[in-house]
Amino acid sequence: MVNDFDTVLKETAHVFSDVLGEPVTYYPKPENSDELVTGGDFSSWPGGVPNGWTVVGGEHPAEVTQVGTGEGNGGSGTGYCNIYTSEDNSVLIKQTLAPLVVGWSYKVSLKVDTITEGEGIIVYDSPTTMFSDKFYAVPGTYTFTFVATATSMDLYIARMEAEITDVTFDDISVKFYSREITAVVEREGLQPVKGLPAGRSVLLTVDVENDAESGISSDEIDTGADEIGVPLRIGKAAPPRAIAKIVAQDAGREVLAGG
Q1: Is residue 222 classed as helix, strand or coil in its secondary structure?
Q2: Are 1 and 198 in contact (CB under 8 A)?
Q3: Tens digit of each residue's pLDDT (9 = 90 or more) over 19-39
Q4: With DSSP H G I counted as helix, E B as strand and the rest as coil, what are the percentages for the chain, rounded to 5?
Q5: Among 37, 24, 165, 16, CA closest to 100
Q6: How far is residue 233 CA from its own chain's centroid?
Q7: Are 64 and 55 in contact (CB under 8 A)?
Q8: pLDDT (tens digit, 9 = 90+) per residue, 43-90?
Q9: Nearest-angstrom CA–CA distance, 222 and 237
């Protein structure tokens, strides 16, 4: 029975194009990824507008205001964003996110705090369509991922239907989530590993380019926190596994050990 395995991310001096690779997925520690949203915590409202956001519309009585958790339009608290609209007048907020890297996966997260009236909010991007419109009609914390098809996009948050809407939300975040790269994987079979119930593990050696776009850069790796998805067998599922340490590296290639 295989209980665990060691992942070795390996960089050597041989010519990478001369060997046949397979796709693996690199997952950095979320805390280490740069935040693309400015003012996603809605803690700053210069001039009565949420920092980093553009308010579109807002003809009275529609408005975007700062409130507190659990509050609707007219609340006196702070740190949350409220969208209020009438049936005839709408308002939304938007923000341009850049830079994105085409082909990389990004994770979006947000908290819908309170829905006092209406159907909820919709999150969408334009003029690109990197993800399908997301509809949130129940308070809660939500996440989804998308693959970038352009180097920037406009992120919109608006009411869901043309009716009276009173929705409060917070904690909007967009961060780099993962990227698929090509690697040479050597599956070396079961090896003795101390501390495992079965006393052994499958050892995988993963040979990648030492580059932050086409491979994994040694400068960006947070050992013990970053993960890489490598299947134990070709064609099988590849759940993320922690990268434990950098074993070897040079200017072109790199080897990491993990489990």
Answers
A1: coil
A2: yes
A3: 567 888 999 988 889 999 999
A4: 5, 50, 45
A5: 37
A6: 27
A7: yes
A8: 999 999 999 999 999 888 889 999 999 999 999 999 999 999 988 888
A9: 24
Beta bridge partners of 111: 141, 170
Cβ neighbors of 100 (< 8 A, separation 6 or more) are: 36, 106, 148, 150, 151, 152, 153
Give the pair of three-digit tokens for residue 175. 């961060």
Q: Coil, helix or strand for 47?
A: helix
Structure tokens at 24: 């693996």
How far lies 213's CA from each of 13, 106, 179, 220, in Å? 18, 14, 9, 11
Which amino acid appears at position 178 of this protein?
S
Taking Cα atoms as reference points, which of 50, 42, 63 lies closest to residue 111? 42
CATH of 46-177, one of 2.40.40.10, 2.60.120.260, 3.40.710.10, 3.90.1150.10: 2.60.120.260
Domain boundaries, the chain: 5-32+178-258, 46-177
Euclidean distance between CA atoms 17 and 12, whole angstroms: 13
The answer to whether residues 72 and 166 touch, using CB atoms and an 8 Å cutoff, is yes
Tokens 């074993």 correspond to 247
Contact call for residues 93 and 40 (beta carbons, < 8 A): no
DSSP states along 72-94: -TT----SEEEEEE-SS--EEEE
Residue with tokens 């519309």: 57
Check residue 17 and report its DSSP letter. Answer: G
